[in-house]
What we know:
The protein is 0% helix and 45% strand. By secondary structure, it is mostly beta strands. Strands 20-27-26-22-23 form a five-stranded mixed β-sheet, with no helix packed on it. Strands 5-10-8-7 form a four-stranded mixed β-sheet, with no helix packed on it. It is rod-shaped.
Amino acid sequence: MSGSYAVVASLTNGNYQAPDATGTLVIGKASAAINVSGLAATYDTTPKSVVATTTPAGLAGVTVTYDASPAPPTNAGSYAIVAALTNANYQAPNATPTLVIAKANQGINFASLPAKTFGDAPFDVSASASSGLLVSFAASGSCSVNGNTITLNSGGVCTVVASQAGNANYNAAQNVSRSFAVAQTWSNVLQPINADNSSIFKLGSTIPVKFQLTGASANVTNLGATIFVAQMSGGIVGTEVEPESTSAADTGNTFRYSNGQYIFNLNTRNLSQGTWQIRIDLLDGVSHTVLISLRR
């Protein structure tokens, strides 16, 4: 064992004598090394300890402090480590690495949102972060948000984005976006087209395709609604085309607004006999269709 020991050397001889010789034997401590592992961790609400071992292995007397505290840290951050050896027979320089606890990732659970109709009452949305932190919302398109309350401002498509910016222990979550259709309130197609798909017209005639916006949408006079037609075959909808107007279309296949109605004078001269689907796009993400038959 290392330490200082008193030594006495004496002579016992029949012919000689000598005074005892005294001295001190010093056994120095052997050199050792301290190795520290587990220096990278991720926050998960539990304390993070490092592992300190010695060379030679298994030496007793190793102590570890974390930024001068004996308690292992929990929160994300960088911590100065001091691992020291106090041993009767071995000495080692302190090991002074850094423990880094990284921020944890988090995710957002935000369910899909159902379609709405313009004029529906404001409603609340909810989402949760795996971190337990509060989720915030932003809205664009045909809606706005205050806190977590969504207000529908027009027909169209509403997009709500859920976000969580993170904190000292969590990284920002990836945003989750949910979009849903906000249907215009409308009259359905007006005469001379029957909304029950029973209309029959003479091929080559002009068919006035008309509708009104009603309810909360009634004051919209510049919607930019468009019309498309597709021939039916065996109950299957064919390729859509932009029809021609015989007169007074705004531009191409766009409805014009007149006296409270949206009107498109559908030219059927370039169409063929059979059943046709008319699709009216109200820019609300909702499919508005009706069938007509053309006969010679």
